[in-house]
Amino acid sequence: MPINSKETTVTADGNTTVDWNGKLGAFLASGTFDGATAKLQHKVGSAWVDLGSDVTLTSAGGGQFITPQSELRVNVASAGASTSITFAVKPLVV
After folding, report:
1. Which residues face 57 on adjacent strands?
2. Regarding beta strands 56-57 and 37-44, do their DSSP bridges make them parallel or antiparallel, or are they unpaired?
3. Looking at CB atoms within 10 Å, which of 1, 7, 13, 66 has the fewest?
4. Nearest-angstrom CA–CA distance, 11 and 86
5. Residue 11's closest CA among 79, 68, 91?
6. Cβ proximity of 3 and 37 under 8 Å
7. What is the distance between the alpha carbons of residues 11 and 84, in angstroms, rounded to a whole number?
8. Spatial CA neighbour of 7 closest among 48, 39, 16
9. Does the global pTM surpass 0.85?
């Protein structure tokens, strides 16, 4: 069964995958972005697709999302030398 939350720290460009339960969630991030962009994406077929502007961050913050997909990833791009972003993907209960 897929997990439905993850918290980790990233310091460079790359992708971190999250198994998801296919429901409503929150994407939260804090730390030093140093020019980086952190995007929450879901897998549609064989392609990774951005979930939207609410979960595309260039500074500390967060946003809500909903997806029926079971695979998510956080894509970090344009990381500077001092990038250190702690992010969390958590389920929301309504």
Report:
1. 38
2. antiparallel
3. 1
4. 9
5. 79
6. no
7. 4
8. 16
9. yes
